C-alpha cells in the first residue's frame, strides 16, 4: 500500500468517530427539533404542518418573551458577578502567591468542586439560604433577626448567588491561564520605565487578560442561560428560566412544537453570543498582540 493511501486511511479512521458522533448526537437531534418547531399542536397531541405560529407565539406572548428577557438578565448578572470574583482571585494566584505548591492547592480549591455533582452543589445553597440554614442561624445568633426569614431563598438573587458559585470555575480557569502566560518582562519593563502598579495593571495586565475574560464570560453566560436546576431549587415563581419552560412544554404541556421552537431560539441566542465573543476575542488579540 502506498504512503498517500495509508495516510488517507489513517485520517479517515481518526476523523470518522467524532464525525459520526456529531451527526448522530447533534445534527440529527437538532434537525428533528427544527422540523418539530413548524408543527402545530392539536390537543392532546400535535401533527405535522409548516407554519410559523410557534415562533410568532414566542414573540407575541408576553410570558415567553419575558422569560427570555429574564434568562438573559440572570445570565448577564451571573457572568458579571463571576468575573468580578474570579479575576481578583486569578490575579492573586498568578502575581501574589510565590509558592508553586500553594498556588496549585488554591487553584485546585476552585476546580475541585467540578468533580462533585451539580445537584449537590446547587442544593448546598438551598440549605445555606433556607429558613433553617446557616445564614438565618448566624443572623439570629448575633441579634439581627429575631426569627428565621424566608427573604434569602426562592428569588432571583438566590439564583444568581447559586449560579455564580456553581459556574465560577469556568471563569477562573481561562483567566488564570491567560494571566499565567503574560511575560514577567512586560511588567518589569513597565516598572523600569517608572510606571506605577495601577497604570501597569490597566495598560499591560488587563488588556492582555481580555481573551481569558471573554472566554470565561462566554462559558459562564451560555451555561447559565441553559440552566434549569437552580431555578427549580432556589428560584421560586419569579425565577423561571427558558430551560424550565422548554422542559414543561416537552413534559406536562405536551406541546413539543412550541418547546422545539423555544429550544431553537435559545440555541440561536447562545450561538450569537459565542460568535460575538469570538470576534471580540480575536479583535482583542490583534489589538494587543
Helix content: over 70%
Shape: globular
Unreliable spans are none
Helix segment tally: 14
CATH homologous superfamily identity: MetI-like
Please tell me how large the radius of gyration is: 24 Å
Number of strands: 2
Q: Domains counted in the coordinates: how many? A: 1
Order of helices and strands: HEEHHHHHHHHHHHHH
Question: What does this protein structure show overall?
Answer:
With 289 residues, the chain is an all-alpha fold. Helices cover 76% and strands 2% of the residues. It has 14 helices and 2 strands, in the order H-E-E-H-H-H-H-H-H-H-H-H-H-H-H-H. It has a two-stranded antiparallel sheet with strand order 1-2. The longest helix is centred in the N-terminal third of the chain and has 35 residues, at 62-96. The two termini are 46 Å apart.
Amino acid at each position: 500500500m502506498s504512503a498517500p493511501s495509508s495516510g488517507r486511511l489513517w485520517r479517515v479512521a481518526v476523523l470518522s468517530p467524532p464525525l459520526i458522533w456529531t451527526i448522530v448526537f447533534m445534527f440529527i437531534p437538532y434537525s428533528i427539533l427544527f422540523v418539530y418547531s413548524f408543527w402545530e399542536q392539536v390537543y392532546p397531541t400535535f401533527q405535522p404542518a409548516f407554519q410559523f405560529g410557534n415562533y410568532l407565539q414566542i414573540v407575541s406572548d408576553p410570558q415567553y418573551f419575558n422569560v427570555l428577557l429574564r434568562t438573559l438578565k440572570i445570565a448577564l448578572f451571573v457572568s458579571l458577578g463571576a468575573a468580578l470574583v474570579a479575576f481578583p482571585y486569578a490575579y492573586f494566584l498568578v502575581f501574589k502567591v510565590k509558592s508553586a505548591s500553594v498556588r496549585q492547592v488554591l487553584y485546585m480549591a476552585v476546580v475541585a468542586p467540578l468533580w462533585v455533582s451539580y445537584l449537590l452543589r446547587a442544593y448546598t445553597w438551598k440549605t445555606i439560604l433556607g429558613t433553617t440554614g446557616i445564614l438565618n442561624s448566624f443572623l439570629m445568633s448575633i441579634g439581627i433577626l429575631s426569627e428565621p426569614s424566608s427573604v434569602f431563598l426562592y428569588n432571583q438573587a438566590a439564583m444568581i448567588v447559586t449560579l455564580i458559585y456553581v459556574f465560577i470555575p469556568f471563569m477562573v480557569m481561562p483567566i488564570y491561564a491567560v494571566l499565567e502566560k503574560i511575560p514577567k518582562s512586560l511588567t518589569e519593563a513597565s516598572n523600569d520605565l517608572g510606571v506605577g502598579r495601577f497604570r501597569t495593571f490597566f495598560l499591560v495586565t488587563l488588556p492582555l487578560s481580555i481573551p481569558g475574560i471573554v472566554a470565561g464570560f462566554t462559558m459562564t453566560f451560555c451555561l447559565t442561560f441553559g440552566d434549569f436546576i437552580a431555578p427549580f431549587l432556589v428560584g421560586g415563581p419569579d425565577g423561571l428560566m427558558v430551560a424550565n419552560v422548554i422542559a414543561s412544554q416537552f413534559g406536562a404541556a405536551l406541546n413539543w412544537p412550541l418547546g422545539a421552537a423555544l429550544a431553537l431560539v435559545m440555541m440561536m441566542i447562545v450561538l450569537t453570543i459565542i460568535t460575538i465573543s469570538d470576534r471580540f476575542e480575536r479583535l482583542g488579540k490583534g489589538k494587543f498582540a
